[in-house]
Design goal:
Largest sheet: 6 strands, mixed
Structural class: alpha/beta
Radius of gyration: 36 Å
Number of helices: 11
CATH class of the largest domain: Alpha Beta
Oligomer: single chain
CATH architecture of the largest domain: 3-Layer(aba) Sandwich
Distance between the termini: 54 Å
CATH superfamily of the largest domain: von Willebrand factor, type A domain
């Protein structure tokens, strides 16, 4: 594959036609001035070493050299190689609740934004680790497959909102199952022996636990048997908080007109964490939860992770720059006037005087 790294610099090539037009204008004007000054044959006799071809040749060489230098500065590149790297790290899937109850403001600025801030800080501490994003409400889907690209991960994290899933609810079991699939194929040793001695995978479940719909404890137990830790972050307050309606100053109400109060279900969160061989921590307006989860991630045994990476394109500007330099050297040794010592060599097709 061929490309230019700085393709915008190719716009400078448009300056070459301008230089050519200016040169033609200047040459014709000079010729008219000489014709007005005196007879053409007489002028040739008075200036026997003057050349009408050499200046044009020099100018043409300069324009070609300029074009090559512009192309070289645009950094033409060719090819792209793929390689697989092995590095030490862990794999973590963040399963984030994006139901409407996550808009409650019992933590600042609200539960969802506070969860995003927490995950962003965890990503800042990742070096050779892989991270993926799963969002859920009444349904669950993969927002970002597991990756080492933390910049993209943060972009997807910032784009998360309750509008991504229309079906409301808190399908935590489905979210955990989707997170397990994010890790890819499970090794036969994990499937058969359920070994957990070299755990390097974790699911970070962030939820308020309200309107729990499926058997999340059973799924967490299955994750444990597959060598995956389930770390649960409960966000909100047990006493609850009303849910703001986006774009209004009001709060969500039930069918009877009563204001809906969303409460953190800590008991359910603790059960899931226990079943998943992990920990439960409540997220508030401090960094306590972030530090607790980070400490738990640091205890995970790291192992080699294979990552497919693409090397940079091979730079091709050297050839263009070398040819341009050679043309400039040639231009330097071409004189505008005929060289008396080289009058017998007529490389420009000029008539010998």
């Amino acid at each position: 594959m061929f490309r230019f790294a700085n393709i915008e610099l190719l716009w400078l090539l448009l300056s070459i036609p301008v230089f050519v037009a200016a040169y033609i204008f200047y040459t014709r004007r000079k010729r008219r001035q000489l014709e007005a000054f005196g007879d053409k044959e007489l002028m040739e006799q008075l200036m026997p070493n003057a050349s009408t071809v050499r200046p044009t040749v020099k100018f043409s060489i300069l324009m070609v050299a300029l074009a090559l230098l512009i192309i070289a500065s645009a950094r033409p590149q060719f090819g792209q190689s793929e390689r697989t790297e092995k590095r030490q790290g862990i794999e973590a899937i963040v399963a984030m609740d994006i139901s409407n109850s996550m808009l409650a403001e019992d933590v600042a600025p609200n539960r969802l934004d506070r969860a995003k801030q927490m995950v962003s800080k965890l990503m800042d501490n990742m070096v050779n680790d892989k991270v993926g994003l799963v969002v859920f409400a009444g349904d669950a889907f993969i927002q970002l497959p597991i990756t080492c690209d933390y910049v993209s991960a943060k972009m997807f994290l910032n784009s998360i909102s309750p509008s991504l899933i229309k079906t409301q609810g808190t399908a935590i079991g489905q979210a955990l199952s989707t997170s397990i699939r994010c890790f890819g194929a499970v090794s036969d040793r994990d499937e058969n022996s359920h070994a957990v001695s070299d755990v390097n995978r974790a699911i970070i479940l962030i939820t308020d636990g309200e309107n729990h719909e499926d058997d999340a404890v059973a799924v967490a137990q299955r994750a444990k048997e597959m060598g995956i830790k389930v770390l649960v972050v409960g966000i909100g307050k047990p006493e609850g908080s009303p849910i703001p309606v986006p774009g209004t100053n009001g709060f969500m109400r039930d069918r009877k007109g009563n204001v809906v109060v969303s409460k953190l279900n800590e008991e359910m969160c603790k059960e899931i964490a226990q079943a998943g061989n992990g920990i439960y921590v409540r997220c508030d307006n401090t960094n306590t939860a972030t530090k607790a989860i980070q400490k738990e991630l640091d205890t995970l045994a790291t192992q080699e992770i294979e990552t497919t990476t693409f090397t940079d394109y091979n730079e091709q500007f050297q050839s263009f720059a070398l040819i341009a330099l050679l043309l400039l050297v040639i231009d330097y040794f071409i004189f505008n006037r005929k060289n008396k010592s080289l009058t017998r060599i007529d490389i420009f097709g000029e008539e010998k005087k």
